[in-house]
Amino acid sequence: MQRRIGAVLVLAALAWGAVAAVEDTDAAPTPPEVCRDCHLPEFEAWQRSDHFQSMRLAEENAVLGDFSDVRVRFHGIESRFFRTGDEYRVETVSASGERGVFPVRYTFGWRPLQQYLLDAGDSRLQAFDVAWDDRPAAQGGQRWFHLQPDEEVVPGHPFFWTGHAMHWGSQCAACHSTHVTKSADASGHLSTAFEAANVTCEACHGNAAVHVRHARAGTTGNVPHAGFVDGPAPRIAWRLAPGERIATPDKAGDSREIDQCGGCHALRTPLVADARGKAFHDAYRIELVDSLHYFPDGQIREEVFVLGSFLQSRMHARGVTCGNCHDPHSGGLVAEGNGVCSQCHRAASYDVPTHHHHAAGTSGSACIDCHMPARTYMGVDPRRDHAFPIPRPSLSAEFGVPNACTGCHEGRSDAWAQEKLSDWGFAEKDHWTRLSERLHRGDPAAADDLHALVAGDTPPMVKAGLLAQATTLPSHKTRALLALGLGDAEPLVRRGAVAGAHGQPPAERWRLLAPRMDDPVASVRFETAIALADIAPALPARAVATTRDLFAEQRQLLASTADLAETQRMLGNLEVRLGQRATARAAFERALTIDPTSVPALIDYADFLQREGQEREAGELLARAIGVAPDSPIANVAYGLHLVRDRRRQEALAPLAKAAATPDASARFLYIHAVAQHSLGHHTAALETLRAGIERWPWDPNLLSTLVIYLDDPQSPETQRHLATLAELEPD
Question: Residue 702's CB: how many other CB atoms inside 10 A?
């Protein structure tokens, strides 16, 4: 990455979209100080915001950490924080394992923690993995701490500070700076630049040159949106009618505020290099609700950056947007305490002990205590759940999900919390978590219940996540359900249905998804390309011809994040399915050049090499994957299968058993383990593995049919029971 570190780079800006009424769309950016002349309150609010502090030059007034020649040791590595004149420096271990001194170029973030961007050489900015805890000392702060305390983070680890995961240009820049542009030279060397180091006015409002010129001339009323490409979304007025407990909006919601904020406040993949002025689902592909990023009931598990949880909420469905609760310039709340919620929820009904059953002013009396439980990320940073969940202790008992009651009352049981809620008269309604669990287990009867949910008023994010799970159900059970989802007005729902169509055989998948190749929303077309690429070799020639534009667009959309190893992996898989082996190989190799520790890229490239007849090379990659992630179930399965192909079948049992025993195992992993056991003569063990799998996945056809074959007793009650289930799954 080549850039002039230590100074703000000013580049020519691209305007938001193509709007003929606004001239000078290639005008230079406008510094925030120009905006201050007319918008002083907004400017001063912005200077108090996290946006202002998102990334700043490492100068006296910006650095919070203690650089007074302090030494700390984490994971056996000593780091020294000190100053040389006005320059802040860190002495630590580099990627090679040798010690070096690295200049601090920028601060990254503010409170409660601050990271530092170090010049790792060749003008490459990396986020250091030791951060400053700026909380008061009484709260445990005013100290240096490691962001990954529970892992041995040393050179070669994915989260070591010199690695791809900590690379500023690829991982962080787009949301911490204004109008970031990236380019790569012929060698793949990434160059990253920005209009402003932090998040300025133009990050949200777009290029201000035309507006400034008309403002100075007093003619802003003569041009659309006062000279900006787009104006703010019309504010919804929330009205509390007499006798009503919850306010009613005076108009339908508008997505523009979500489009503006969501791009950075979401766990998503960009689909375009410049998202300004584009609708969110045209510019990004948000991660759906799944078991990796969320708890089974949709509560936040990993760091998902707000929007994914907010899109699950009924408040979003009613038209509530970010600005109803947060001042857009300071980022702070628009009112104190429960006053934020009582804008729409009548205080006399909700902000009273008869509702929350806690003494006023105590913990538990605040709305956010029960309906926005916090989860701590990056060691010291609590983030609140924006799905606004209702505490459901019964779900905690069933599925191990958190609930606010026992989260606050430590030592109390879920049964105690459930009893308390019952005593207070709260009747717990059914929740989609149970349907999700049935889908996970492959229950064919879940298809009808999911159909009813998709046809109802459940938030689109929830519908999408559940539809994506439809691959676990018998294909004939889900066709009408998928057709309903594919025709939904919400792009998220259509996208979820496209993902759910992966379980359909090629002919039926093509029939369902062909109309979605022309979907008006880019993220839906992106998902469609993934689903159709899987069956491209099975499509008739006429169908293949119609997919060319779709796959060409897929390559274009992937190009916007070509600096990411995950993007190169996806590109490699696309090219494999389209028969472009040389291009696929280059993409996989590029992925591992970008990030040699990428376990998904290691596994997928190994699979490619194995199909190309390069079994030894595939095994080397899989051994690397195990070295990076020894507990990864898919890495262990892939390595075990390699050992089987390499005629080392006895050795294969250990990684296959490890994969089958992990909490994240799938039915397929247990099936593979059982087959391996049986092939080595461990007949009884294979039966027990299959029975354990069927206990978890009672309708999995591979587990059922294999157990029937291994039992080899057509008249036994166990065989008859499983045959009846198989007949239910596949009547034909």
Answer: 17
- 277 band by pLDDT with thresholds 50, 70 and 90: confident
Q: What is the pTM of this model?
A: 0.93
Amino acid at 202: E
Can you tell me the distance from the alpha carbon of 453 to that of 465, in angstroms, rounded to the nearest whole number?
Answer: 12
Separation of alpha carbons 281 and 600, rounded Å: 25
- Euclidean distance between CA atoms 367 and 337, whole angstroms: 8
User: Position 21: which residue type?
Assistant: A
Per DSSP, helices labelled H in 503-547 are: 506-513, 522-533, 541-546
Tokens of 151: 């892992």
Tell me which residue of 97, 72, 93, 96 sits closest to 82, measured CA to CA: 72
Mean pLDDT within 150-179 = 95
How is 185-247 classified by DSSP, letter by letter? -TT--EEEE-SBSS--HHHHH---HHHHHHHHHT-GGGSGGGGSSS-PPPPPPEE--TT-SB-
Task: Classify residue 122 as left (phi > 0), alpha (psi -120 to 50) or beta.
Answer: left
Facing residues of 192 across strands?
182
Q: Are 327 and 333 contacting, i.e. CB atoms less than 8 angstroms apart?
A: yes
Which tokens is 469 given? Answer: 């799970």
**Residue linked to tokens 């003494």:** 359
The 3-state secondary structure of 143-167 reads: EEEECCCCCCCCCCCCCCCCCHHHE
Beta bridge partners of residue 102, listed in sequence order: 90
Beta strands at 113-119 and 99-108: parallel, antiparallel or unpaired? antiparallel
The residue written with tokens 């092939």 in the block is: 679
Amino acid at 661: A
The DSSP bridge partners found for residue 132 are: 114, 144
Task: For the chain, give the mean pLDDT.
Answer: 93
- Compute the C-alpha angle 492/498/504, nearest 5°: 155
**Residue 681 identity (one-letter amino acid):** G
For residue 715, give both structure tokens: 């008249």
| Tokens at 346, concatenated | 């009548």
Q: pLDDT for 102-125, tens place per residue?
A: 999 999 999 999 999 999 988 799
Query: Does residue 731 contact residue 696 with C-beta atoms inside 8 Å?
Result: no
Q: What's the rounded Cα separation, in Å, for the pair 644 and 652?
A: 6
Nearest CA among 543, 549, 508 for reference residue 529: 549
